[in-house]
Amino acid sequence: MASTTAINKIEKLRKQLNYHNYRYYVLAQPDTSDGQYDELMQELHQLEADNPELVTADSPTQRVGAEPLPGFSQVEHPVAMISLANAFNDEEFMAWHKRVSNLLERNQFDMVCELKYDGLAVALTYQDGFFVQGATRGNGLVGEDVTQNLRTIKSIPLRLLSADVPSRLEVRGEVYFPKSEFLKFNDERVARGEEPYANPRNTAAGSLRQLDPRMTASRPLDIFIYSLGYVEGDGLPETHAKSLDYFKDLGFKVSEGFRVVQTPEEAIDFYKSWVESVKDIDVAADGVVIKIDDLEFQRHLGIVGREPRWAIAYKFPAVQSVTQLLDIAVNVGRTGSINPYAILEPVVIGGATVQRATLHNEEYIRAKDLRVGDWIVVERAGEVIPQIVSVITSSRTGNEKPFEFPTECPSCGEAVVNPEDEAAAFCVNASCPEQLVRLLEHFVSRNSMDIDGMGGKWGGILIQHGLIKDVADLYFLKKESLLEIERMGEKSADNMIAAIAASKSRPLARLLASLGIRHVGSEVGELLARYFTSMDNLMAATEKSLTAIPNIGPRIAESLMGYFANQSNRAVIEKLREAGVRVKDEPREGPAEQPLIGLRFVVTGRLEQFSRSQIEGRIKELGGAVSGSVSKRTNYLVAGADAGSKLADAQSLDVKVLSEEEFLALADSTQAI
């Protein structure tokens, strides 16, 4: 058993090292030499080696990386990690400010301006002040557990500096690879005869997703904390700016360059001050984020789709170059969309070779008057697909050829139609071979049914051999049929059959996202699976029950109902069911009935018996929907003390207000909360 002297000495050394880590990695103001720091660390290593029972997860010695992981488990975010809407010029930013002003019914409010760092978004969770979990953004609702890798980043405190913290606190941040360190990292790779990496952002993302945490530890990743994600407890700051100061007091690294402004003109001035000078800092940044400072205003404004109304990213000008448009081609998407794209003379833009650019649709081509042979300006901003900015008409010779959009599908020859409310054109043939190839490629992909070893190449081959006429046919493939395909060996056939069989147990959300339903990706699939739990429930859903779900609007509801109204689609689902594919999730703990389906709630104020998140969770368990702001679609406001503006909104819109006790009576049970 360790002596009291050893226990006290270890605790003292940890405090000293945590303090020096904070000074060096967060404040960039070291007050000790590297040699002195190394002596303290060596002494702690020795004491822990002599007393292994005293080694704790928050010790500074535990940042070096654990043993390799077999894979990443999934983490469901308690509050969705949302994306930001973009503005690319002053007019778009001013339009956002005007919309927000109208919604808040006031012309002046404080905003916080911060640099938008180009890295990988993560969520860090602390339990009683100790770092217990870290996750990537993923699809916004579910991310990957990268706790062990995040522990290796020295600017992430393993124990918060303040003892007065909420019982559970989640903060969001951006992991990045400093530009100066990235250059050194690439120089070392070249010296070893290895290929250099393309950019800091992708390298940071790849480093954080290493299955061996020791590999992550060998790379100098850093992080800035930019917002609160989720909290259990009270007493937190009321504004975003104060939150950033609060994070600093807890030991987090935040952007020092943020500024609180009162007018949109001041925000634009902040943006312009960084357009040129951003190249001089050691972090890749692609714009400025402007957020409403008052957190109650943020809650009032809420979220639409995947984007908050209370924030916008004002992006820096994109990197541009000039090249020639060699041709315009089209492909058929998995939903039947006819997608034109530009084939370009290869050109290097922002460190990447660009050979193709998106053209969106026929209207886009006509509006820009694009002709094959034109000299054009192409831009590439961050990870955005390259796009054509303009045509250099002064360089035309008269040999350029206008593009004729096809009236027949290039794959199957069936008619191409343009729905009135859609910019895209579509092939009318649900059995179109190229459409099926794209759908099958999507169906077997990692984020869908994840059928290992089945890429687009094999999908095309199976279709060509007549073995697959829809995605459900995958589950009826026989080994004997596969062996008749050239270059398909016995082992490959066994592996393919086994991988297909393994995919039958994927969750319902994966299946929904894999079917190629327009507007239904992984995030919407998660929402639908959570609320309906089975394919049968979803197929029977009404527009009212669909649009009662937060972030499910009329367009998504219409797409779902149209998909399930198609008998050939229903036949595919029946074949999937017959094959044993999972079309129903396991029932969750709690009551079987969901009496709150179709009802929309907002929860606000200080509650006595339960936290807001617990009440919201109970609403969802019972089939209800939860929103962040009161509107005409809100059925009930659950209000505690100090309800604020949401109570006033509910009263003005004649929305029924429930006390905590009245809600519990409505829910008809308190045991599952």
Mind explaining what this structure looks like?
Helix 16 crosses helix 17. The protein contains 24 helices and 26 strands. The protein is of the alpha+beta class and 673 residues long. The two termini are 42 Å apart. The strands form 7 sheets. Strands 14, 15, 16, 18, 19, 21 and 22 form a 7-stranded antiparallel β-sheet that branches. A 5-stranded mixed β-sheet has the order 2-13-10-3-9. Strands 5-4-7-8 form a 4-stranded antiparallel β-sheet. 36% of the residues lie in helices and 21% in strands. Strand 15 (337-349) and strand 16 (352-358) form a beta hairpin.
What can be said about this structure in brief?
This protein is an alpha+beta fold and 673 residues long.
Annotation keywords:
single chain; globular; 24 helices; 673 residues; alpha+beta; 21% strand; 7-stranded antiparallel beta sheet; 5-stranded mixed beta sheet
Shape: globular
Largest sheet descriptor: 7 strands, antiparallel
Straight-line distance between termini: 42 Å
Tally of separate helices: 24
> Low-confidence parts lasting 5 or more residues at pLDDT below 50?
64-69
